[in-house]
Amino acid sequence: MKRISLLSSLVVTGLVLVSAAVTFSCSYSANGSEPVLPDFQKRRLAALERLAKTPTDRIQPIRLEVRTTAEQRAGVRRIRLRHHQIISDSDYAFAGYSLGPGSPESSLTAIASDLADAYLSQAALKGVRIDSLGVSITSLRDSVPPTQRIVHPHNLFYTIYVKSPATDEQLEELRLLAEQNSPAFNIASVKQTVNGDIDYVQTPEDLTFEPPYQPGLREYLKYKRAALLARGSRPDTTRVRRDSTRARPDATDLLPGNAREPQLDRLHVELDPASGARKVHIRHFNFIHDNLPLFAGNDLGPSSLEHQLGALTSCITHITEIQAASRQVVLDTLSVSAEAIYDPRAGRPGFENVPLWPYEIHYTVHYRSPHSYDDIVALRDAVEAVCPIYNLFISEQKINGRIVRENPDAYRIHPQPHGLYKD
Prior knowledge:
single chain, 29% helix, 24% strand, globular
């Protein structure tokens, strides 16, 4: 067993290192070869200490940049996050191919991933050993059925599954600290300002294709419209859409005081003990979230913040497809780019008022269409009115959580049969 002592008061990326001395115990497996989560906690603590000691004038804001493109022949959304890529798609009944998760469930799982990461960091700073850690998230059903169309996930509830020798009080304290210091959590729980622009180029009304004929976005939107008509969906109705982030129909209320357990989790994140990367499970889809070496990561996948910003662009892209198909607006190409600023200096002297979460969120929709600019502006406005993740960002959400002292393996339901859920 090894011990590390941390002295003095330091502020790093909104993570406040307490002024009193704290100790961190690192345990190893019996044979000394298999990594365990406390090993990574040691590396995370060392990384946080190094960053805390870095002079403020040597730290620069980080610009997060993502872009989602609607693939021509299938309408599938390809999210590019630096050198990482994620596919987002809708179900067959929505003219999709179910090749990837939807945007709302991706956005919520990004919150769970960031909470897991923040929880581990706070445990390292407090010297609390964590042996396994997983976080699940869902949106609960309304106690009173809504009369208006729900345009964003709400009634959010997460569960932290943790194995640790710490007391219940210590684990609960870490949960509250994780909420305070999780950027992705605060993007959803604090009302954000999201600005949008239009990049528009008018194309010819009639396009001819040289052999061999390759259907493009115009053709895909015809199938999208047919699917919409088959579903009986209209963008201006008050019909409540099914939400793949919600608990199953027979799930009970998870708020404190209810003794019944939830159904098995559909959106779940667990920490890999060797790398600290988060294994993201969205139904039967699996991803990796990771940090840069600055935070003891290996960049094995995008960060949870990048994925959450990517979910915004993916959602705007998909709702644009839906609205264009419904309004019979022809599109030849469609992509959405977005950027935000994340400042690791937040909380340091002189930067006390800088948000701990990404800010200056800005997106641009890139259209190529034969329609007029006024038609495109009306399309953009209609998208903003009903886009789930856009409205999640600009609305203040109440997010509740709890601690369960169990092994996350008991609650995961992946892998699932393909197409088990038709949301």
